Structures are given as C-alpha cells and as structure tokens.
Amino acid sequence: MEPTAPKTVPQSPISGMVDPEIDLASIADPWEQRVTAISVVAGIRAAQKPPLDLKVALPPDVRIAPFKRQPPSLDDFRRTHLPDGELLAPHQVDGWIVEQGGRDGAASVWFADVWVQPEEIEHIDPDGVVLIPGTKLRFDPPPDTSGAQVMGRRKLEYATPLSARQEYVVRAGGVLDTLRQLSLFYRSLPWQWPSAQATTFVLTGLVPYAAQFARDLAIQHGRRPRPMSLKHLTLGVFTERHRDSGEGPAQRIARWNELHPEWAYTNADLFSSDSARAIRRIGYYQPPVPSAARSVG
Asked: Which residue, 47, 54, 68, 261, shows the most beta carbons closer than 10 Å to its own?
C-alpha cells in the first residue's frame, strides 16, 4: 500500500516536486500516475485557496484584541515580488532568496516569554506596541527552558535542485518573512507539504509529490485503490484545472476534444458524469450538499 519514491517524476528539476504540466502518459507505473495526478490537483487547489488570517495574541491582561497578519494572495506575491511577475526556474531559487534577503536587510530577533509593565507601553498599534524610551524587555522563560531559547531568529525553509532543504534567516515584515508565512499556510493544508517544498511551490509553481497524502487516502479506503485508466486520470486533472473557468459544457468538451482527440466526447451528460467520477476516484471528494439545499426547488 505504501507508495515508493517516484521513479519517473524526479525528472523534475527538484527531487520530490512535480511540474504541474507533466504528461501523465510519461509515467509507466499506474500507482505513480495516480499519485502524480493527486499532486497536480493539490497544487491547483492550493493556488486557488486564499491564505488564512494569522493571529498572534498579546497576554490577556493587556486587554486588546489579537493582532492580525494577513499574507498576500499567491498571485499578488508572485506579481509583486518575482522578476516581471514570472515564476522562477528551479535553479534561480537560491540566488533570488539570497538577493532578496540582502534587499530586506539584517535578520530580526524574535522574543518569547518577554514582559513589560503596563505603564511602559506608550501606545498600541494594530501590528505591535510602542514602548517608552529606555523600556527593558524582561525575560521570564519557563523553568524547563534556558534563557538562550527566549531570543531567536526565524528561518525560511526552501528546496533547490541541489538540496531538499535550505534555510535563510529573515527580517520581520520583509519579503522573505512574508514568503515564510505563506509557506506555513500551505504546509497546513491537507496534502502534508513540507515547508521547504511549500516555499518553492510559491516561487516556481512546482508542486510537491503528495505520496503521504496518497497513502493516507489508501488507508481510508481500507485497501489500495483500484488503478485508474490514463484517460480518467487525465480527465480528473483537466476537470480541476477548468473547474472555475466559467466555461459551459459545450466549451469544455470542445477544449477537451481538441487536447485529447483520442478520447473525444460527443455526449455532454457522459462527459460531466465521467469528470465528476474521475475527481472522486483520484481521491478528491466534494462536500455533501446539505439536506436543506437539496430540498430547494
């Protein structure tokens, strides 16, 4: 049941990551084809999902609402910070991060278990507090920790063609810190992406090979899923890619038939049912429609 490391997919420039435009026909093993299709659909869905609010709360006795930090959307980050708004090639990732780190400035220091007195706070802003001059940040680490653990730097993890995991210390509020927040968001999604690969997904568009997610789906089913035909795996990816395109059935069938004349459809109902079945069998289930909604009309 446990998927092995892909044999064909690592032709991708970064080991363990998949070009979302990969031709599934180039992969010989049916299980590997399925995991690759799952991976590509995960990448499509991740790119369409807006980041969640990331909140950090001050101690309760300060009596203010939690701070909010909202990362930009994936498209906004790429458009604003990547050269000409274009995705990087895998071999450009390391150089771009080092150069951007230089533009951001020296890495910040983060503090945990630090306190000040209320009268030492000059005023409170939405993104932090302003202290009166000369205020001392007092360390108060838990008994089972050392003072050295109170101060630290935060690191961006990323993957390159030469290393599955690299680190770069970041400046708070800088572009690389924003990228770090985005990578943490994508790591938290169901497909169990490592932070390093989530970062590289943002920069290159390559998607992590979701072997662990595929294994968990197999366990949920109680056995290894039956192999799917290449046609239906390809149809599942196509369906996800064009799910929010706004195209009607006739336009979508025409696009499919142009791309895959060997699997052409003439019946719209059959095409729709096969598309929905393909997505379900890959392992992506649409949430059930509430009973109240089903009864409408």
From this structure: 47
User: What are the backbone angles phi and psi of residue 89, rounded to the nearest 5°?
Assistant: -75, 150
Contact between 37 and 31 under an 8 Å Cβ cutoff? The reply is no
Q: What is the pTM of this model?
A: 0.81
Residues near 108 by Cβ (< 8 Å), separated by ≥ 6? 153, 154, 170, 171, 172, 173, 177
Q: In Å, how far are 21, 60, 147, 149, 291 from 142, measured between CA atoms?
A: 50, 18, 9, 10, 50
| Antiparallel, parallel or unpaired: β 128-131 and 138-139 | unpaired
* Domain ranges, ordered by start, for the chain: 9-48+208-290, 109-152
